[in-house]
Write the structure tokens for this entry.
Amino acid sequence: MNIVIPIILILVVLFGFTAFTGAPYVPSLKSEIKKAFTKLYRISSKDFLIDLGAGDGIVQKIASEYGAKSVGIELNPIIATIAKIRLRKIKNAKIVTKNFYNYKFPRETTVVYVFGDSRDLSKIFKKIEKEAKRLSKTLKVISYGFETKDYELLKKVGAYFLYEVR
């Protein structure tokens, strides 16, 4: 009983911290992700995906099924550990436990997946724009659940929105 209280406090602090610094963890549905990767943006072995707020790594797992390489950035160390376990046998996917605002996208990045929330979407797109400029390339952005008026919408499929950031 004495150990249970400290464990609960640690979990509350870790999950509470991410609630104030990022979006809460909400898992994505496999069928919806597959629809996004086939009907919205056809992901392939030519792509390198950055998953901002990677959660449990399901987006990366599915991207790897289409041959894409990926890096998932997850702030919450517990959820990042779950993602690392899920992706342990997948060679072309990795998880970084870090605040994605401080992460520099690799040169080969082609597409960014974001399941942010409406309050942070503008800030997230500014980060993506900064990285696109640093890399001197256009990046495709898949936004799940939230639309932005700051960029031209290229396509919409279900709750997914596709943008280009230059």
About this structure: The longest helix spans residues 4-21. Residues 17-21 have pLDDT under 50 and may be disordered. DSSP finds five helices and seven strands in the chain.
